[in-house]
Every structure is written in C-alpha cells, then in structure tokens.
Amino acid sequence: MYQIITDGSWDMGSERATRFGVDVVPYYVTMDGEHYLKEIEELDVRDFYQFMVDNPKIFPKTSLPTVQDYYDVFEKYAKQGIDIICFTLSAKFSGSYNSARNAGNMIQENYPGIRVTIMDTTLATLMQGLMIQEIVRFQRSGADYDALIKRADEIKDTCRIFFTVENMDYLVHGGRVGKLAGISANILNLRPMILMTQGELFPSGLARGRVQSRKKAMEKLFAHIEENGNDPDRYIYMVGYGYNIKEGEDLRKDVIEHMKKKWPGFEPTVEIGQIGATIGVHTGPHPIGFGLCEKSC
C-alpha cells in the first residue's frame, strides 16, 4: 500500500483532494510580508485574488512548506506502514522539493521499512494537479509502487502549459521579466505568450490585447498536438483562470468548440480550475491559459 502526497501548488482544492485520496502539504501566503496563512486551509483562493484586485500596488508573497510540515504528513502514513510517493512543484521554481526530500530522509531513518519517493513534477499549478489526477487513475487501475513511479516519470514529460497574463507588472516585480521590457509591453498593450515545460518558463511570442493572446495560446496548443502525432485523444486538457471565472469558462467553451472543428468526431475532456496563490503571486490576478497531459491508461 502507498499514499500519494503533493504540495499545495497542485491547485485542485480540498474537494478533489478528498475525492482522489491525495494528501496536500500547503504553501504559505502573506499579504503584508509579516503574517503568513496556509493556502486553502486559512486563506481561500478567491479571497487572495480579491485582495490583489482591490490592492494593485501590493504584491503578496508565498513561502514553501517546511521540512516539519512534510514530516508531519509523511509520519501519519509511516506509522501505519504505508509507503509514500510525494509530488512537488518544479524545483526550478521553489525549494519545496528539497524540503520534501529532507523530510523523506528523516522518515526513512526513523521508519526504516518505509519507502519514500519524492518526485519533482517539473510542473506547476493545475497541470501539476492534472498529472496527479492521472497518476491516481493509474494507481486505482492496480499499479504497484514501482510501476506508478515509472509511469509518472513518463507522463510529466508530456505536459505543457500555455498561458498569458493581463499585464507585466507581477512578472517584473518577481524578476522574471526586465523592468524596461515590462513597461514597453504594457504601453503597447502587448501580452506575453508563455510556455512552461521541463520545469522552466519560455517566451512564446507576444500578442496585442487579451483576445488575441488567448487565440495565439490556443494555436500553440493545437500546433503542439499536431507536431506530436496529431492524436488529440492521447491527452487530457485543463483550462486555468485567476480572478475571473467567466473568462475561464468562456475559454473552455472556445477550446472545446475549436477542437471539435479541427478534429471532427473527437470529444475532448477539458477540465477547468482556478490557479492558486503559489503561481498567482507571479502572474497577478488575471492569468489565463490551458495545458495538456498524456492520459495515464
């Protein structure tokens, strides 16, 4: 028997965590730089985004789960003789992976018979969550510990995130975009197209305005499918939004409609979710995008 655990960057919420039997180790969020709250447990994501909308000149911050946070969760299962597989946010974004590894080493010292594997998903937010959902499906199909780790390693390399933001302010503040480039883009009403793959963010072009940026992101998603076998049924899809749920719902409808036109007879599975604070502090209140992940079985 083994338990799947993830850090809070998975952004799937408490209801899905219960439904999929996943234990979550949350990140911390601060609005004032002094008082930290556990995301979901003590700070609702909707309240987080509302604060950002109401206070556009204040930039919230996050702090990763501590080694003790991970240890406390791991130990619950170790005491019961249950092995552990833990998935974390990309190690290139956060020290969460190292915290989990340190906690895992402590568990194995104190509970020598327990297997602990910490996997860097190289992903973030809802794509991390979508991958974990697929891994749970694989687990429930009867996969043993080693088979699941092998399949998870394969799946994570197929995941891609294509997204854009409302403006460059938060990317500039977080040091991910130069100040001059950010100011110029804002003045020209340009929206950056961003691709996340293999744990890193890559520029993927610019678009003028919100509508065009969404359209270009969709084009890049479809191009990726075509370049990798042109089999849309190979993947499961996810739309992610920030403050504006209607924008997310509209984008989901657009994606489904365009996929059906492009691949007649195909009925896409496109889930939708709210991007959490762990990534929202870097994107601002209006990220929008989608991603894909290979089905587990």
TrEMBL record:
<protein>
    <submittedName>
        <fullName>DegV family protein</fullName>
    </submittedName>
</protein>
<dbReference type="GO" id="GO:0008289">
    <property type="term" value="F:lipid binding"/>
</dbReference>
<dbReference type="InterPro" id="IPR050270">
    <property type="entry name" value="DegV_domain_contain"/>
</dbReference>
<dbReference type="InterPro" id="IPR043168">
    <property type="entry name" value="DegV_C"/>
</dbReference>
<dbReference type="Pfam" id="PF02645">
    <property type="entry name" value="DegV"/>
</dbReference>
<dbReference type="InterPro" id="IPR003797">
    <property type="entry name" value="DegV"/>
</dbReference>
<keyword id="KW-0446">Lipid-binding</keyword>
